[in-house]
Structures
1.
Amino acid sequence: MHKSVDKFLSAHPEIARHFIEKFFQIAENPFTTTFDIKPLKGKPHNYRLRIGKYRFLYEIKNIEILIWIWRADSKNSVYDNI
């Protein structure tokens, strides 16, 4: 997890528990359809998870089943400069 995501979760403890629960489930089944997940256009293997008004951007590397969470912010800011 990128340090900016750690910082975001520290600043938003009300969402941190939901985030952790959902990503543990995503780690077990990376292509689950249970959550509000959408692929990012033009970025293969990159996805967006919505939890309330917040968005978490992550990449799935199939060979290792490694999930790299690289961005977290509100929906108005999360897509800036990607």
Note: The longest helix spans residues 13-28.
2.
Amino acid sequence: MDQAAEAEDLVFECKDGIGRITFNRPQARNAFTFAMYERLAAICEQANDDHAIKVLVLRGAGDKAFASGTDINQFREFKTPQDAIDYENRIDRVLTTLEQCRVPTIAAINGFCTGGGAGIAAACDLRIGTNSTKIGFPIARTLGNCLSMSNVSRLTALIGAARVKDLIFTARLVDAAEAASVGLLGEVVEDIAALDKRADEVARLLASHAPLTLTATKQAVARLQKRLTRDEGEDLILMC
């Protein structure tokens, strides 16, 4: 994929200290290509270095989805067990870069937020949804793979072990009300227009606050939460 196509699939713009990342494949429910994952990581690294960026807002284009995970076409070239290991290594690296980004990150979630898309949302600091939001990891009835150890660690820290098992075992998508009740969403608004407005309000508020306080708080919370590495669950990835 050429760089122009990559830029079109994941659009980034920054104004008044607020960086806005848009997953721009609405025809595919904003499913991620490998190039999109890499561009997301690159933007987070840019935010680490560019102190003009105060906050990042992540959203999906269109009205159907935030992001529906990794595009299935990305798996068609997989031939060996190492391909699966390399894939999980990529996802771990990108989501860790997002989670450890210097600035606060806000996921503005409308519609479907599944698989890798839900992983991206879970790695953000704040999550705002709408009444149409559906979140889940339906891998038990789709790809038949498993989450990496770091993804399981992150999700368990967010919603607890029993709820992680419930989500994975049932392969169901939870609605906005349930997502808010278990901690997958911090706030729910009516529709996509209200979502854009609220995400902008929160972003502007965070951009006005002391950046070192926000960064220190992010790092303090991260130090409290042990993340098992992909290597510690490599046998599970290979098993699946």
Note: The two ends are 29 Å apart (CA to CA).
3.
Amino acid sequence: MSGKQAKLLTSYMVAATIRHVRRKRYPARDTVMILLSVKAGLRAGEISKLTWPMVLDANGKIGKVIELHDIAAKKLHGRTIPINPYLKKALYRLHRQQKKPSDGNIILSERGESMLPSSVAKWFKGIYAELSFGGCSSHSGRRSFVTKAARTIHLVGGSLVDVQQLAGHRSLETTQAYIEGDSRIKHKLVALM
């Protein structure tokens, strides 16, 4: 998407995408891919490099956080991301389906090999094309995650720095570039002044 940012996903679009992939050949894997994007804000490359040890606790169960190691993150900038409850359930189902592996990549191709970042990006593009979600790409879930986090962080007493850290950005300016404004909110704000 040269010169344009990926389109944000609405709650309806996310739900429609999850319903759509549940009818596909690999529903457990595909659901996890969608949720890693929209509920953890991972990039296509991070999704492809995410391994079970990064999400399992010491007892071999799905933990409370994703420990995204430097090797899996862009510019070797790893981070810790709390696991959303919906994502946790989806990871649990996939983990059971894959016969509870303790290592190896989470997202596997049809041949059982780890998917390349370009394959993950292509997969997202194909799914959104099937749904006629024009302008959406593998980055849409990430942008949606960052925007939603920025709009709601004040509810839990946080700041944009917390959103920056969840996104794995080195600068707050990069995080701010992800956040899309909302004209409805702007109208409400101006009406209060």
Note: The chain has a mean pLDDT of 92.
